[in-house]
């Protein structure tokens, strides 16, 4: 990404896609050589500042001063790493140093300056120093060394003219290439553009990652995240079982592990990385569903309830574990990024008391134990998360702009997130689970799964009515008002 842009261009956002590499053995060795050379650059900067600190001199942290030291070192000092790649490491060090200095100045004395060495350091090349053609990327090398040609395992999801930088990284036992592109904010046809005065409230949760409500016409969106929660639980159980089985074979302090132990540790890291990729993709799918719904509703502002204050309160061993698996920070970051690309503003407000406040009469009620809430002061009955989303919409900075008469009287759209997760497909069973017991005598056997073609449902249901299960049609719902 270039540091200077033309002011005449419209607003843009930067997005990064991580793409795997298909390498030969020689290409793999050269990639690791570049990462080790970048680690040497990082170690040299740490050593120089350590010398200056012992002498009582001012540390070298400015990017331009660090570039001067790099030029004085001469060509060929860091193997095949060229000047552009080495400067990306210096830029990373300078940003980390000044960020730590700003936080220490703000009163965070526990923050430390960069001081830890790294064997493998990511290397970034900016626009104009690399070449991208289809799935092939040409990375520059030092003077006298041939350029490195690598092949991607999938096509870059951005137009070639918008790519501004590529970064070579090593993560979870694999080499990756992070491709960063500069994308313009989405534009809409006349009559379909977003309206900043149309506000929607968003309630975040564990069972339902997103519950959105549009008070303008009473419509709502409910995204189910039960597959994500099941993935977290099964991964935790799998990790605990693996550690119990290998605890007695773990090497002691000062003892070198065997080759079998190293293979087991590598396998554990690969499983952990696969779990993170699965949950991250599910969060992206859920957020994309929310943004597409907001674009269809012509929403210009999303008012999101910020529940991060709840994370600091002790609530027991089990509930604290659920909150740690929630990944609320990543969820908010993904939401803000996708909303910025769609041209939608995001406001974070306090969500305290929204799940125990009636959206119709605005009176406090006892928080329900289940998913449905009923107000004893009026005739409202509906989903608790959707009711909280309607209440959050009223906390928009500047006040609610939507009319009061259309509140809580629209269509609820149901969607699922994480259809790619194990157990979320037609079988509805995670392969890591133990096989089920045989059916009891006289039973009809296990229930049949739903059709795999059903991705979500759109319920023509009023929010202020009470759901009841039908007995005449399997899986159907009838809504009986109070």
TrEMBL record:
Residues 193-310 form the Probable transposase IS891/IS1136/IS1341 domain. Residues 330-392 form the Cas12f1-like TNB domain. Residues 241-263 have a biased composition (Basic residues). Pfam families: Cas12f1-like_TNB, OrfB_IS605. Keywords: DNA recombination, DNA-binding, Transposition. Residues 239-263, 413-482 are annotated as: Disordered. Transmembrane segments: none annotated. In the C-terminal section; belongs to the transposase 35 family. NCBIfam families: guided_TnpB. This is Transposase. It comes from Paractinoplanes lichenicola. The lineage of its organism: Bacteria, Bacillati, Actinomycetota, Actinomycetes, Micromonosporales.
């Amino acid at each position: 990404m270039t540091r200077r842009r033309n002011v005449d261009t419209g607003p843009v956002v930067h997005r990064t896609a991580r793409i795997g590499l298909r390498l030969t053995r020689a290409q793999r060795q050269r990639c690791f050589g570049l990462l080790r050379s970048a680690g040497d650059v990082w170690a040299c900067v740490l050593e120089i500042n350590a010398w200056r600190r012992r002498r009582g001199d001012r540390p070298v942290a400015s990017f331009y001063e660090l570039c001067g030291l790099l030029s004085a070192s001469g060509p060929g000092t860091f193997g095949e790493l060229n000047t552009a790649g080495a400067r990306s490491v210096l830029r990373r060090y300078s940003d980390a140093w000044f960020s730590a200095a700003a936080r220490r100045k703000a009163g965070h004395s526990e923050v430390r300056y960069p001081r830890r060495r790294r064997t493998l350091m990511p290397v970034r090349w900016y626009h104009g120093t690399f070449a991208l053609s289809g799935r092939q990327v040409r990375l520059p090398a030092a003077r006298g060394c041939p350029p490195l040609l690598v092949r991607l395992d999938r096509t870059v999801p951005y137009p070639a003219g918008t790519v501004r930088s590529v970064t070579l990284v090593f993560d979870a036992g694999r080499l990756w290439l992070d491709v960063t592109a500069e994308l313009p904010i989405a534009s809409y046809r006349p009559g379909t553009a977003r309206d900043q005065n149309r506000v929607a409230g968003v309630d975040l949760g564990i069972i339902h990652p997103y519950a959105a409500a549009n008070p303008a016409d009473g419509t709502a969106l409910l995204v189910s995240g039960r597959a994500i929660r099941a993935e977290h639980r099964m991964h935790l159980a799998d990790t605990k079982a693996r550690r119990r089985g290998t605890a007695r074979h773990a090497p002691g302090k000062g003892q070198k592990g065997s080759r079998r132990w190293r293979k087991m540790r590598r396998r554990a890291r690969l499983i952990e990385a696969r779990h993170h990729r699965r949950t991250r993709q599910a969060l992206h799918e859920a957020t994309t569903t929310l943004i597409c719904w907001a674009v269809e509703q012509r929403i210009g502002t999303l008012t999101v309830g910020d529940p991060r204050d709840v994370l600091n309160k002790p609530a027991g061993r089990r509930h604290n574990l659920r909150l740690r698996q929630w990944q609320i920070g990543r969820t908010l970051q993904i939401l803000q990024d996708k909303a910025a690309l769609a041209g939608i503003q995001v406001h974070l407000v306090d969500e305290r008391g929204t799940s125990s406040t009636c959206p119709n009469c605005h009176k406090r009620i006892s928080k329900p134990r289940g998913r449905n809430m009923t107000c004893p002061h009026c005739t409202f009955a509906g989903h608790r998360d959707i009711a909280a989303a309607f209440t959050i919409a009223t906390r928009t900075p500047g006040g609610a702009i939507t009319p009061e008469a259309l509140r809580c009287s629209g269509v609820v759209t149901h969607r699922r997130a994480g259809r790619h997760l194990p157990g979320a497909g037609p079988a509805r069973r995670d392969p890591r689970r133990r096989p089920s017991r045989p059916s009891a005598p006289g039973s009809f056997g296990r229930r049949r799964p739903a059709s795999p073609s059903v991705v979500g449902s759109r319920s023509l249901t009023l929010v202020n009515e009470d759901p009841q299960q039908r007995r005449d049609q399997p899986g159907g719902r009838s809504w009986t008002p109070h």
